């Protein structure tokens, strides 16, 4: 790099620099294994750095006009004032964010497959209950936003030092219609798992600095921070801004063991070694994402990888059909996937 | 420590220490690649991955994760590209997908089966310039 800050470790490998974002902790919580995984706050994905594209007003329809949810509010169809996902309607200081839209009442002209929307109705699904807004037809202030949707990585570990078993992503009750959970081979629903959500430093920087949860280093008022030049945008229409590549107010994901692996044989149980761990009291965390992937075995059994956790210093991969992983056509093994044991420093 | 950089949290716990080996995940690129299946004449895409030195190095010290793309196993192809070490500082992406009809029967791939995938390229504990 020709400018900026770069910090290397004793072997000359880069710990962080001001040109490339590293992976940093942005949220911590606990949950129970074998129960539905909690919803993550949407600010994790960087929505705080949304960009206002345009603003306008629309008048909602009064009365009950065929709602299917308390979160729906109807408007006469108006293509010129469409409200895409992440648009915000503000009423008395409360923000209602658009999540989805459906349209009824469009009429096909003859057999032309051309539709007339003159008397159609748009039902916008918001993130909050809007039943209190339905009694009157009122002009509503709308702002159309673009919002970033940065990805994130889940790191987890059992809270109990005496835990022994294997765990990874699966559906509750191995039923594909149910939400995801951390599958725990012990079968218990009371084992607590600690979870750290880690983001690219670029995404971490897109989270508002009023979100105290993102400061996993414990302080929010002073720091060393590394920033790029104003060379990238959080959203397609947004301004060129400086991006974060490192910030000492949170913890960085340090890989202790990391390997790419394409899964085991799809008809038999096996194990896979990530390498040896030295003994330490610093908490180890496993990178959970790749345990979602499955291989379909005989009789539609779904083989997936889980982390075999014997202790903080003994972690490997167990390959079997227990729990079932996540059934998704997009999450089948098509190439090696990353499996890793990480540390987030002392005190994490 | 006699030199370097240490970072502590508000309780004085050590978070980062440049005097010890510290492997971090660092995103070094985001790349979108369009490739026709090789059976339809598509050539591998050679990508410059500075620092990669062997197939083992690629496997152990880099993560190349697909974040969006076309295809999908429903229609007979994984949609993903085959990624392998090419030579010092270079890796290759190849579209080895097979093509099927909607009903699962294999058919000859054509250039219209070209797939675009977007990858995030991460390095694990390597010198990054």
Structure description:
The complex is a heterodimer of chains A (348) and B (129). Chain A has 348 residues and is mainly beta. Chain A is 2% helix and 42% strand. Chain A has a six-stranded antiparallel β-sheet. A six-stranded antiparallel β-sheet of chain A has the order 4-11-6-7-10-5, with no helix packed on it. The two termini of chain A are 31 Å apart. In chain B, strand 1 and strand 2 form a beta hairpin. Helix content of chain B is 5%, strand content 44%. The longest helix of chain B has 7 residues, at 55-61. By secondary structure, chain B is mainly β. Chain B is built from one helix and ten strands; from the N terminus they run E-E-E-E-H-E-E-E-E-E-E. In chain B, strands 3-10-5 form a three-stranded antiparallel β-sheet. Chains A and B meet through strand 1, strand 2, strand 18 and strand 24 of A and strand 2, strand 3, helix 1, strand 5 and strand 10 of B. Strand 18 of chain A pairs antiparallel with strand 3 (23-35) of chain B.
Topology overview:
The complex is a heterodimer of chains A (348) and B (129).
Chain A: E1 6-8, E2 14-17, E3 23-32, E4 51-59, E5 72-76, E6 88-91, E7 94-104, E8 107-108, E9 115-116, E10 121-126, E11 139-146, E12 153-158, E13 165-171, E14 180-184, E15 192-200, H1 201-206, E16 225-232, E17 241-247, E18 254-261, E19 270-272, E20 284-287, E21 295-296, E22 302-311, E23 314-320, E24 337-343
Antiparallel strand pairs in A: 1-2, 3-15, 4-11, 5-10, 6-7, 6-11, 7-10, 8-9, 12-15, 12-20, 13-14, 13-22, 16-17, 18-24, 19-23, 20-24, 21-22, 22-23
Chain B: E1 6-8, E2 14-17, E3 23-35, E4 45-48, H1 55-61, E5 62-69, E6 82-87, E7 90-94, E8 99-100, E9 106-107, E10 115-124
Antiparallel strand pairs in B: 1-2, 3-10, 4-7, 5-10, 6-7, 8-9
